[in-house]
Description:
This protein is an alpha/beta fold. It is built from 14 helices and twelve strands. It is 43% helix and 13% strand. α5 (156-180) runs parallel beside α6 (201-215). The two termini are 29 Å apart.
Amino acid sequence: MKDHNAIKLAYQNAKAQYAEIGVDTDEAIAKLSKIDISLHCWQTDDVSGFETPDAELGGGGIMATGNYVGKAKTIDQVKADIEKAMSLLPGNQRLNLHAIYGDFKGVKVDRDQIEVKHYQSWIDWAKKLKIGLDFNCTCFSHPLADDGFTLASKNAATRKFWIEHVKRCRLIGAEMGKQLGTPCVHNLWIPDGSKDIPVDRYTHRALLKESLDEIFSVKYSKEHLKDSVECKLFGIGSEAMVVGSHEFYMGYAVKNNTMLTLDSGHFHPTEQISDKISSILLYIDEMLLHVSRGVRWDSDHVVILNDEMQSIASEIVRAKVLDRVIVALDYFDASLNRIGAYVIGTRAAQQAFLMALLEPFETLKAAEESGNNFRRLATMEVMKSKPFGAVYDYYCMMNNVLVGEDYIAEIEKYEAEVLVKR
């Protein structure tokens, strides 16, 4: 366990160093404390859910690799793992649910029949923890998605099924927001696309627009529900064409005043979503950020404090849009301890935002506007060696969670005492 007096001393030294360049570390911590990060339930069990016993889902661009010990197999185990992860995280978190994680009590309920009652136990649990819930329709790993199309299918019956599913998901999300007193963000992602070169992209996209128009014709108060639509460059089985491309959903979000979801693993490796944020928020009120990490072609690796994560956080802070960006995690790695994956990813995202909040933005902006590019770049380089870690350690201590590497042993203890016995 870290010595609290040493942490306080290191923080005071760091505070003094940042004060020399006009940065108030206490103010940065206060702003960091207001960032809620929504944890994704599907990291606990590799996107299996509870539609059927021993479910092993996949398809539609979804693939969790690995078979590390301790996969959650029941709702109670998912809740226990989420609570354990949250106990090791400073600040505030929410939980992001997929529709397949309903409390179906062993009864088969198809997706066009789900109701609020199937998620009431989650709402009650969230009330107890005093956290908010977010929600996602599950438009993959289902017989009516086997041909690669759901809301954009040319089969009217298939579209009708999925439209009804998403309508019910929005209703459930609105009820979550109403009962918990904090808006539920419902995110819509579909796997629709083509493995090889299609000749009729236009019809599929016209059908998707038609489906979305019907879905969103039902209005809910934004105090209860916020809608977001998520784009992707390609997925497994949709390498040649994804119906819901960035251009499609960007246009739809602007025209219909929905949120737009940017997933940091959903674009070409040479693209940076940090560069898209300032453009998007000129035209829509809010956006949803799915924090992930792309490695080569795959998009769902555990988030680390890398250049892209830092660039995203810096752009949000510099543009002064923290209150207009909702942050959620989205990855699933079954090759390592799943609770550890939550803690690594959440802490990395928090550290990126803290580094951004500790930046002397006005000094950098003044240098830029005066044409002093040397001073701008030199200052940005100097900031990389500033003791932001001491500030984050202090933030953890303030929140009564383990500091630094101490959480590693605690997670390994939980694995030995709980996970290996499943």
